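worker-3 :: picked Acetyl-CoA acetyltransferase
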Amino acid sequence: MTARATGERTLRGRVAVIGIGETNYYRHGASPDPEFKLALKAILAACNDAGLDPREIDGFSSYSDDRSDAARLAAALGIRRLSTTTMQWGGGGGGCCAAVANAAASIVAGLADCVVVFRSLAQGQYGRFGQAGGIGTISGERAYLMPYGVLAPPQRFAMRVRRYMHEHGVRQEAMQAIALASYHHAQSNPRAVMFGKPLDPEKYNASRWIAEPFHLFDCCMENDGAAAIILVPEERAGDFRNKPAYVLGAATGAGYRSGAMPHNSPQYASASFETLAPALYRMAGISPADVDVVQSYENFTGGVVMALAEHGFFKPEEANDFLVLDNLIAPSGRLPLNTSGGNLAECYMHGFELVIEAVRQIRGQSVNQVKRNDVAMVIGGPMVTPASNLLLGSGATL
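worker-3 :: tokens ->
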């Protein structure tokens, strides 16, 4: 028997998202529920959305060291058999799409039949996420940063973005447009933490610097809550309440130097998708022109600029012309972006709210529904390692 080449092995059309669920979203530390209860609430909401008995779940997938243990979830839900548990390496939201890919791979490989992918956060219970305290030793990229006082994510990523802006002539207005688009969409989304709090250019420009070139509104929020989706094999996709969203492709990883990137590296000003984007399009069998709507993780708006360019939506030198508000908003912008409000204005559920919004767009259920909705992209964790991405499609794309 001859092993299939990598390009012949695929997730395309073999797994479908049939349920989505989420809790209320809160400012960080404000959840009335502990983190484990939030996870259960989101999973049960996804089961209800699908019309699925929770006992049919037989696997769990998450990322960023989620603290809601799969075995404990299985016991609390009363599932009959736990068949697969996967956790994606990497902090923050770089794994939000990889966790979906890991679940899909488990199903395609025959390890499980019904897998939940989830993320839950209750920072009042466990402390604020991402603080730099309690680190006894450093290695990898941190060895280039921490000895010089670069401790916080805005400091770390501001230098990458500033170099990208310098090399390609990208102006502050390009990042401003991304922030404005997120807040524009959040005003139609009652779930959004920033619902009822619009943003305009004057307010953006007047906001304080966090770490130049990042204004306050270039930085994601910090929130509590939980979000979950349910995946099943393609042959079961029609058995549930809602229109399925099929996995067309997924990729995870980074360039070989991204784990130890000195500031003088030629790849320093990168969102880490130069190898992932071609792999994603290759598996899905589509091009950037086929993508109808994008949900891109905004830890910081500058990372979105780089990530969109690396996915081929424009050349870096074209960023100023492409990234204007009218191009980025639903229903008929050139490339509607973060149509639920995203990490900046809906909720920072480490990007998993973006996956749910991509499913809503495929179903036609978004509060900011785009006109063309057969292909939705999710980009997870620009500038972190490993990063990941995901393409979902309607049945018409198969």
